[in-house]
Amino acid sequence: MKKVLTAILLGVLVLAAVLWLPRIGIYILIFAAVAAGLVEFARMFLTDVVERFAAVVAGCAMALWMMAGPAWRASAPLGLVLMLFALALLYMWRSRELSGSAQRIGVAMLGVVYLGVSFPFWAWIFEMPLGRALILLAMVPACLCDVFGLIAGKCLGRHKLASMVSPNKTVEGLIGALAGSLLGAFAVRYAILPELSALAVAGLAVVIWISSPFGDLVESLMKRSCGVKDSGSVIPGHGGLLDRLDALVFTGPAAYAYVKYVIGM
Q: Which one-letter DSSP state was computed for residue 129?
């Protein structure tokens, strides 16, 4: 019951934020999600406090770079190189022995890309024409993917999808997630975006159906690799913030690419 109530409360808060927060508020919310997610990520993978802090700072700096404006975005690859250079120097200075140094640098850069680069795409969507509506067009199907996938998996699940990574994920749940994505996308279209064609909305629903559940699996893969069940305990009944953001990490870039290059907005 706690998990359901928490999910409903989070959904209402996110919906209100997308509809009514000013631009700066949306950006602060996205940055806060990146920062909190990076803290959980660093705690899972890195033991040294200074190395953890450096990984979080690098990821946050990359997020700010991604959200700073078009000129900065165009130079995002340069930002990644600078973050890699800075982290490599720091980790080299902190290492008492060379064994494992490359792996820790790689993990830190994974966090930079996973959250510092991927999640700010929601800010890019917000800046598009009809940005608030487009965020809902991507976010609502992603959430319903999770809900319908869970229901279908529990009621009909027989065939495991990726048993080593997430034992509860099933092929039947994945099919249910597609139904949820389509329902969510067309509900938003009917309510606030009737100008989009049904074909374009159906295509976006499929893109979200692929990126959202597999984003969940990627986060599960990372958690299993370091032997933890949840990324944290900040959200009652749900674990950590990353456990809630996982479906949105890849959905943002995928939705942005589809809307910009396929729909042409």
A: T
- The tokens describing 122, both together, are 């929601």
Longest dimension (CA), the chain: 61
For the stretch 197-239, pLDDT in tens is 999 999 999 999 999 988 888 888 888 888 777 776 666 555 6
Q: In this structure, what token pair is assigned to residue 128?
A: 């598009």
CA distances 92 to 42, 50, 58, 145, Å, are 18, 12, 16, 43
**182: its two tokens:** 């389509």
Domains in the chain: boundaries: 1-127, 129-265
CA angle 30, 36, 38 (to 5 degrees): 100
Decide: helix, strand or coil at residue 119: coil
13-51 burial, b if ≥16 CB within 10 A, otherwise e? ebeeebeeeeeeebbebbbebbbbbbbbbbbbbbeeeeb
Task: State both tokens at 54.
Answer: 């450096």
Strand 160-162 with 166-170, pairing = antiparallel
184-206 pLDDT, tens digit each: 999 999 999 999 999 999 999 99
